[in-house]
Design goal:
Elements (H helix, E strand, L loop, with lengths): L4 E5 L3 H12 L15 E3 L5 E5 L5 H6 L5 E5 H7 L4 E19 L4 H6 L4 E5 L2 H11 L3 E5 L6 H4 L5 E6 L3 H5 L2 E17 H6 L1 H15 L7
Parallel strand pairs: 1-3, 1-4, 6-7, 6-8
Antiparallel strand pairs: 2-3, 4-9, 5-8, 5-9
This protein binds adenosine-5'-triphosphate and magnesium ion.
Length: 220
């Protein structure tokens, strides 16, 4: 008997950029989450289904074993923590960077040098806290759930910590990137208990994925 597997993905970039990797592994997803309202999607493999959850909920489903595997951004994993999660493969998809941005004209380097207390708005409290602590910069962190770019424009914060890819959203809001904190990409995560109990089903998938993202002879 084959053990059915559940893979947690989020709509949008993660789904769109994971799809070609699944295709290369011979797996087709039979429905499109953008047009279907279904949250459980069948695949061309009867022993593998996909669930669609919020990006920041992917580690939770995998940690509790409700999903055996998932794809989550490093940004999300750093905030959530990695207890109970095995992270065998960086898939290299959904790439961007975590950065500090300020309104054009704000002298960030000087504010940091002066030891001023910076007000920083972000969805990524943990990452921001660690970044500024390592630099010895005093910050008041303000938690937001989205549209961080707005915060410095209307006086809620001096700076933001957010994900940047093209920089278009920053430019459109007259913000400039003043510091890159780290590069971000999406990782495959696996429930540690599932890896032991369903090794026969999971291990071949891991081998296919690692072969796809870093084929032998090609350095990653
Ligand atoms: P939601 O939109 O449901 O609030 P989210 O913003 O975390 O959640 P997405 O916008 O789909 O969801 O982003 C999913 C992941 O894609 C992020 O966690 C990050 O790893 C990656 N990503 C890549 N580029 C960007 C970008 N420019 N902005 C935001 N996320 C990005
Ligand atoms: Mg989003």
């Amino acid at each position: 008997m084959t053990t059915p597997l559940t893979l947690a993905l989020s709509k949008g970039r993660i789904f769109i950029e994971t799809l070609p990797l699944l295709a290369q592994a011979g797996i087709r997803v039979l429905e499109d989450p953008e047009t279907s309202r279904k949250l459980i999607l069948e695949t061309s493999r009867s022993d593998l289904r996909i669930i669609i959850v919020r990006a920041s909920d992917v580690p939770t489903y995998v940690q509790y074993g409700a999903a055996d595997l998932g794809v989550a951004g490093k940004d999300v994993l750093l905030e959530h923590g990695t207890e109970g999660l095995y992270q065998p493969i960086d898939l290299g998809v959904a790439r961007c960077r975590m950065s500090v941005a300020v309104p054009r004209g704000f002298d960030y380097q000087n504010a940091v040098r002066q030891g001023a207390r910076l007000r920083v708005a972000t969805k990524y409290l943990r990452t921001a806290r660690e970044h500024f602590a390592a630099k010895g910069v005093h910050v008041d962190l303000i938690k937001l759930y989205g549209s961080m770019e707005l915060a410095p424009l209307i006086g809620l914060a001096d700076a933001i910590v957010d994900l940047v890819s093209s920089g278009n959203t920053l430019r459109a809001n007259d913000l400039v990137e003043v510091e890159q904190i780290m590069p971000i990409s999406a990782k495959l995560i696996v429930n540690q208990a599932a890896l032991k109990l369903k090794r026969g089903a999971i291990q071949p998938l891991l081998e296919v994925f690692s072969q796809i993202v870093s084929p032998a002879g090609v350095s990653p």
